[in-house]
Amino acid sequence: MPLSVGVASVVIMTTTRGAGLAIEADGLVKRFGDNLAVDGVSFGVPQGTVLGLLGPNGAGKTTTVRMMTTLTMPTAGTARVAGFDVRQHPGEVRARLGLTGQAATVDELLTGRENLRMIGSLYGLPRAEVKRRSDELLERFSLTEAAGRIAKGYSGGMRRRLDLAVSLIAHPPVLFLDEPTTGLDPRSRVELWEVLRDLVREGTTLLLTTQYLEEADHLADDIVVIDRGTVIAQGTPLQLKDAAGKASIVVTVSHAADLDEAERLVRASVPELHVDPAARQITAAANGLADMTRIAALFADSAIELDDLGLKRPSLDDVFLHLTGHRAEDETAATGQPEEALA
Amino acid sequence: MTLDQTGHPEARPSLEPEGGLHRGGLLRQSLVITRRNLTHIKRMPEMLLDVTIQPVMFVLLFAYVFGSSIPTDSPSGYREWLLGGIMGQTITFSSFIVALGLTADLDKGIVDRMRSLPINPAAVLVGRSISSLIHSSIGLVVMSLTGLVVGWRIRGSLLDALLGYLLLIAWGFAMIWVGILVGSAMRSVEAVNGLMFATMFPITFLANTFAPTDKMEPWLRAIAEWNPISSLVQSVRQLWGNDPDGVPASAAYPLHHPEVATLIWVVVITLVMAPLALRAFRKRTST
């Protein structure tokens, strides 16, 4: 069930934006024994944009990132980062990328500051430069106060921030983040999103993997959906949502007594609807904005008081369900135990 | 090849790494990692138990529990004779130290983090090796001090004494490769512990470390005397003047030329283990 927004959109993206591709995956394949973890993944990320690599657990996201960051050799196909082939010039690729892995790989026995300085020294930055950048990043990620404490005692959010800060010590132009917000509380997640947006504003090209549709929706310019090692859709968040189905109009009345009258009004223009008495809500399949404005006018002329009237587009979760037949965050589907998913 | 001429006005003008990124060599990178490993010891001094309390306990246990019933020809008895054995065992366990540290770093993703940096991939191993040798050397110092307390003395020349220590360090170097092999092959710290206890421990006992070999059953004696650790321990005892009568004429060939035998063992073990270890490390880290 591939969408119309297929591989062709990559070409469109490159030509319309004018910038070069900072990251390219070209038919990447990775086989572990009998298991084909990644099976021919291709996409491109224009410079200065964000690509969300979306998929459930076990879809091949991490393996794809590992191949693009020179940690794992592709079985077939290749990838280029900043124009350099990961197979032929891994050193050049490493000099241009920052990587934050799935588990926050900070050194637990070093302090926050020591973590930054160690990686800075490994890059071969001059000592004074390492010191200056470390302090700068600690400040930026609100870690200055904790800088002298060993990372073992950091909260999950602090570890993630430190891990990201460490990836940025040499100002890499291309950044790979593998599930950067997994396990974070909602507030830390939103804070991290803010930081990532800032980085992109400054020109960093970002590839992030996520199983949170909300996250891809918030951050990504383009989304590549992968499932069982293959790309099943790609496009902008809007394109994917449009492809998944129509938008719907949601009417919420203020008083339950008005619900029947409201239903009659809506049905007059949109016969296909669903009433949820408990939520005092009517959901109707809309044919674009025309239906929306007509219904709005009808309610404006009536005496019915409304709490809310809105157009609801399908979420990326709906998109995923539509594409794969299972929900993105449904782990049992990914591990192949459908009977448990039903329980 | 590079994309910096494409000049999108809002985008970063370049995909090049920032200026000032002059990469240092393998040695400098290895020393950064060595320093990091030593900071670990500073933060968790209990990591040193294996080269402090443990061998000291061995000295005391063997010296006082078995000491009176094991006859030796050392001037101040079994205790002085024992020390070279414990030293040999302690430095052999540096393989243990390397394996534990490497497995922990692999397990926690630290090695992958290092591998994503523009550094020589060998720096992780060299850094780990240097810090493990320092770790083991701390053990040698602690052992020497403990020895002095229980009556051990160096009775040879200073040069010979230093040569003894150098042989121990050389042996430690060979053991590093064993450690890298085991560390790369095992999936958890617990597995390393299990394997090393089941192998290295008996191997260090199946030698002249704690008891003279000439009273052993002939087959056992042959194994013990051909055990490379026996050559090492015999060299150290002779160089420190702790075995004035030397080995009996009936001893196996290597024990009659222990220093040369030790050096040959170091070279052979390194030549065999290093390629295996590097292959195992590459295999572990590239999948």
Description:
The complex is a heterodimer of chains A (343) and B (287). Chain A is an alpha/beta fold and 343 residues long. Chain A has two domains: 8-236, P-loop containing nucleotide triphosphate hydrolases (Rossmann fold, 3-Layer(aba) Sandwich); 246-312, Alpha-Beta Plaits (2-Layer Sandwich). Chain A has helices at 8-17, 61-68, 90-94, 112-122, 127-140, 156-167, 186-201, 213-219, 237-244, 259-269, 289-301, 316-324, 331-334, 338-342, and strands spanning 21-32, 35-46, 50-54, 76-81, 84-85, 97-100, 174-178, 205-210, 222-227, 230-235, 248-253, 273-276, 281-285, 306-312. In chain A, a hairpin with a 2-residue loop joins strand 9 and strand 10. In chain A, 48% of the residues are buried. Mean pLDDT of chain A is 84; it is low at 1-18 and 330-343.
Secondary-structure topology with pairs:
The complex is a heterodimer of chains A (343) and B (287).
Chain A: H1 8-17, E1 21-32, E2 35-46, E3 50-54, H2 61-68, E4 76-81, E5 84-85, H3 90-94, E6 97-100, H4 112-122, H5 127-140, H6 156-167, E7 174-178, H7 186-201, E8 205-210, H8 213-219, E9 222-227, E10 230-235, H9 237-244, E11 248-253, H10 259-269, E12 273-276, E13 281-285, H11 289-301, E14 306-312, H12 316-324, H13 331-334, H14 338-342
Parallel strand pairs in A: 3-8, 3-9, 6-7, 7-8
Antiparallel strand pairs in A: 1-2, 1-4, 4-5, 9-10, 11-13, 11-14, 12-13
Helix pairs in contact in A: 4-5, 4-6, 9-12, 10-11
Chain B: H1 26-43, H2 53-66, H3 78-92, H4 94-107, H5 110-115, H6 123-150, H7 158-185, H8 189-205, H9 218-226, H10 228-239, H11 253-256, H12 258-286
Helix pairs in contact in B: 1-6, 2-3, 2-6, 3-6, 3-7, 3-10, 4-6, 4-7, 4-8, 6-7, 7-10, 7-12, 10-12
